[in-house]
């Protein structure tokens, strides 16, 4: 099996397992939960903000592991289908998972993401 098929297939199997620990989650499966969160992102976010806020929302509404898995899965998909895979997107996802642990609503997560994305990186 080629790597091009093995990585998405592995991610798919993990995603289909789902994590139903949060009764407020928007969908039972990991893929469904992540897609529901991404579908509700507010308009007007920059690409790094989308990655950050999506990861924060997935971590809160689905699980932190599913947020990590969705972020890496998206970048793997981009790498194999001609998308724009980047380390910056993974960094934004990491910041989003960190922002998910704080209190507050969507506006608070967006502010946390904007602050985290503006911090200088080594």
Give structural attributes.
mainly alpha, 122 residues
Short description:
The protein has 122 residues and is an all-alpha fold. The protein is 70% helix and 0% strand.
Task: Describe the fold and architecture.
This protein is mainly α. The protein has one domain. Helix content is 70%, strand content 0%. The chain has six helices and no strands. The chain has helices at residues 3-17, 30-39, 47-61, 64-81, 87-100, 106-118.
Helix and strand content put the structural class at mainly alpha
Q: From the alpha-carbon coordinates, what is the Rg to the nearest angstrom?
A: 14 Å
Distance between the termini: 38 Å
Number of distinct beta strands = 0
Biggest sheet record: none
Low-confidence stretches: 15-20
- Percent helix: 55-70%
Give the overall form. globular
Number of helices: 6
How do the helices and strands follow one another from N- to C-terminus? HHHHHH
Provide the number of structural domains.
Answer: 1
Mean pLDDT over all positions: 85
Strand percentage lies at: under 5%
